[in-house]
């Protein structure tokens, strides 16, 4: 029992425990610590100790040191001067009773617990003190993750073994959460039990004093630091301060800086949302959390869901949604992950850090990568997933650790939920797993086991997406054959690539070259040749070849008319040229392999390695002719189509009043996003049931604004359903008519 200025309470408190424990036949001792009281507290406990030798132990502080010091002194005396197996921590202010100790001991025995901590059933304190305690408990549980609902309840029955080697430093009220944090950190079983709490009848409470509160907060911060230092809390901070792989950590830090600088540069030039698809991705993420039919069903059935799920939480903030950062943050984080694991993978592959630095640098400083990581597109998330998957798959092929195979399968799962290229990666990775396991064990059972471990997780995304399409659209293949998935929506009739394999190969080759730059492509090709000569087709050497599969995949997609890709040399324009950027990953890896293998042949290896890696990265980066991915987006925004969209968007921003708006989203994404019409008031083709009702009779559905696109041959569904109808003529006024974009307002509305 710590006691400070408790002359009116301490004797009654001690006598209550002495008599109750005697009555119950429980061997005991009561340790009372006088914390430098300037009243008669010290004399009273000395008298009690003389009257009950061995049963009352008096401890004195010459000066007041605070509650934390008193608890430490009491615990030290209890452990040193008694041999009892259980220790109760309580106060000397008569606000607790000894009869609760009996119930706590029974609870401890029933639960086979190492400690039972009390919580006040009804706290008998003024409301201000109760409020302070509530805030304090929330703070302590947030920082230290301590057990219990009443952190500072002074009634804790603890097994001696938990306290034997305990080192406490907390001052004032911080001693209690520190104690709970330390005893709960080693797997101890701790349970709670209610105790009675009584009003203080004598003396003054010191816990609510400003000086004590400040001391407690400062001490809690110190305790938190100690917990981090001792790896009991926030272990990731220690790992961040002293990473296991300093090289990879420095590369990741440099990537963070590059990501922020690039984002600020492109933001300053107004390029963050140059891609129409960036608007679409942000709209989907926002509709998950804010739309007339908000929820996971807004994820749709064509674009895969992971990028939108990751962006949805930040999309809650309208400012982050409108400026595009909600989606760009996902790309920026993915960029950092991709750079870090490219370094690790190429270093492991080449056997030298210069190889890793070359691969990371070629990817990180590529202008096309820097632009796409600053906008709300999905490529960087796919790249990160693919690089992580390839790295851990290579580690498994080399070392055979099941942990690496599990991590690879998780990365492939994320890739399959990001872009459909991830499905190709999944199939190739599964083939590598089967081939490697069969060559390693020569037994079908082991091969089957490895495939199950990998495929159960990696394939879950593909099966899950089909199940989702079945649940939402009634067709598991809706992502492939649905209304908005047909390739004819993007591939124009007479496309040069369709049916012409040489043209498709030329188109994709040029797109890749524009994205990589001729120097990076040459370094990558040289590294590939060297790797093939040195490693051949051994099972452990197959993984780096995996990323090469995307070249024939995209060539087939162009040839079969599944996807369009235009380069100026073939089609006179740019479209989807970013599809070629994925080839930067294998090019960077093989270039890193080349540099890493050349280093041992150079004199002054450390300096030469850095110089060689730096020269390769800088030279190759300078050889990239700008950011073709940005050029494509800027050219599209400069088209007449987008000029008309920009004009009506500007008009809507100035005149729209937030009323319910009927607007088809497909091919109107620029207007939907840039008009800043609240997504909560937008009725579009993904508004479950509301869309059909609004198209049939917008007036009856309460629609106040109607937007439609009347471009000949490209009219949207709203125009098809409502143009020339009586409901439109009778209830709505045409308030905007420019460039085949029409806006109607319900009659009587001011425009």
TrEMBL record:
Question: Which InterPro entries does this entry report, sorted A to Z?
Answer: Glyco_trans_2-like, Glycosyltransferase_2, Nucleotide-diphossugar_trans, RgtA/B/C-like
Extract one GO BP annotation from the record: lipopolysaccharide biosynthetic process
A single GO CC term for this protein reads: plasma membrane
The answer to keyword Isomerase applying to this record is: no
Residue ranges of domain Glycosyltransferase 2-like in the record: 1-166
Keywords, comma-separated and alphabetical? Cell membrane, Glycosyltransferase, Lipopolysaccharide biosynthesis, Membrane, Transferase, Transmembrane, Transmembrane helix
What family, per the record? Answer: Belongs to the glycosyltransferase 2 family.
Name of the protein described by the UniProt record: Glycosyltransferase involved in cell wall bisynthesis
Q: Which organism is it from?
A: Glycomyces sambucus
């Amino acid at each position: 029992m710590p006691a400070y200025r408790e002359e009116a309470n301490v004797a009654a408190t001690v006598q209550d425990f002495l008599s109750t424990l005697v009555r119950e036949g429980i061997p005991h001792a009561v340790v009372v610590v006088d914390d430098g009281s300037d009243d008669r507290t010290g004399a009273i406990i000395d008298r009690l100790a003389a009257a009950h030798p061995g049963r009352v132990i008096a401890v004195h502080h010459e000066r007041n040191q605070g509650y934390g010091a008193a608890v430490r002194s009491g615990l030290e005396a209890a452990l040193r001067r008694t041999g009892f197996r259980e220790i109760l921590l309580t106060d000397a202010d008569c606000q607790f009773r000894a009869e609760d100790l009996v119930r706590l001991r029974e609870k401890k025995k029933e639960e086979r617990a190492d400690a039972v901590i009390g919580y006040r059933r009804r706290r008998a304190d003024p409301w201000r003190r109760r409020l302070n305690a509530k805030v304090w408990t929330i703070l302590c549980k947030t920082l230290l993750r301590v057990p219990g609902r009443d952190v500072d309840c002074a009634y804790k029955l603890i097994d001696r073994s938990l306290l034997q080697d305990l080192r406490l430093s907390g001052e004032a009220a911080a001693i209690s959460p520190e104690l709970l944090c330390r005893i709960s950190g080693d797997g101890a079983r701790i349970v709670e039990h209610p105790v009675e709490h009584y009003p203080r009848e004598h003396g003054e409470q010191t816990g609510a004093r400003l000086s004590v509160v400040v001391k407690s907060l400062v001490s809690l911060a110190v305790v938190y630091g100690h917990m981090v230092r001792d790896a009991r809390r926030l272990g990731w901070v220690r790992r961040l301060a002293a990473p296991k792989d300093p090289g990879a950590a420095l590369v990741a830090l440099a990537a963070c800086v590059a990501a922020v600088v690039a984002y600020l540069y492109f933001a300053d030039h107004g390029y963050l949302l140059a891609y129409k698809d960036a608007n679409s991705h942000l709209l989907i993420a926002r509709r998950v959390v804010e739309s007339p039919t908000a929820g996971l069903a807004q994820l749709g059935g064509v674009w895969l869901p992971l990028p939108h799920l990751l962006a949805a939480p930040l999309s809650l903030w309208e400012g982050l949604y409108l400026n595009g950062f909600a989606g760009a943050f996902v790309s920026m984080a993915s960029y950092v992950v991709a750079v870090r694991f490219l370094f690790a993978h190429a270093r492991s592959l080449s056997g030298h850090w210069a190889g890793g630095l070359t691969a990371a640098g070629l990817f990180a400083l590529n202008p096309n990568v820097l632009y796409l990581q600053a906008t709300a597109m999905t490529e960087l998330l796919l790249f990160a997933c693919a690089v992580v998957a390839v790295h851990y798959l290579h580690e498994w092929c080399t070392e055979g650790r099941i942990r690496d195979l599990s991590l690879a399968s998780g990365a492939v799962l994320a890739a399959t939920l990001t872009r459909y290229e991830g499905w190709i990666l999944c199939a190739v990775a599964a083939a590598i797993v089967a081939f490697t396991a069969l060559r390693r064990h020569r037994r079908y059972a082991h091969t089957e086991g490895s495939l199950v471990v990998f495929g159960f997780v990696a394939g879950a995304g593909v099966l899950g997406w089909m199940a989702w399409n079945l649940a939402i659209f009634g067709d598991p293949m809706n992502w492939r054959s649905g209304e908005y998935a047909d390739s004819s929506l993007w591939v124009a009739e007479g496309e040069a690539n369709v049916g012409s394999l040489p043209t498709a190969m030329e188109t994709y080759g040029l797109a890749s070259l524009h994205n990589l730059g001729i120097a990076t492509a040459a370094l990558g090709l040289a590294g590939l040749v060297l790797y093939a000569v040195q490693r051949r087709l051994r099972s452990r050497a197959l993984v780096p070849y995996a990323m090469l599969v995307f070249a024939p995949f995209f060539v087939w997609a162009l040839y079969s008319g599944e996807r369009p890709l235009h380069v100026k040399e073939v089609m006179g324009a740019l479209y989807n040229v970013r599809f070629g950027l994925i080839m930067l990953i294998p090019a960077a890896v093989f270039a890193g392999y080349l540099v890493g293998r050349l280093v041992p042949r150079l004199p002054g290896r450390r300096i030469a390695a850095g110089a060689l890696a730096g020269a390769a990265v800088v030279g190759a980066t300078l050889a990239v002719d700008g950011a073709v991915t940005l050029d494509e987006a800027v050219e599209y925004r400069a088209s007449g189509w987008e000029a008309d969209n920009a004009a009506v968007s500007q008009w809507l921003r100035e005149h729209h009043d937030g009323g319910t708006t009927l607007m088809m989203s497909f091919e109107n994404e620029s207007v939907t996003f840039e008009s800043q019409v609240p997504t909560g008031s937008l009725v579009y083709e993904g508004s479950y049931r509301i869309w059909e009702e609004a198209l049939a009779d917008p007036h009856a559905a309460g629609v106040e604004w109607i937007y439609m696109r009347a471009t000949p041959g490209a009219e949207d569904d709203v125009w098809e359903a409502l143009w020339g109808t009586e409901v439109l003529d009778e209830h709505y006024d045409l308030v905007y008519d420019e460039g085949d974009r029409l806006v109607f307002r319900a009659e009587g509305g001011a425009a």
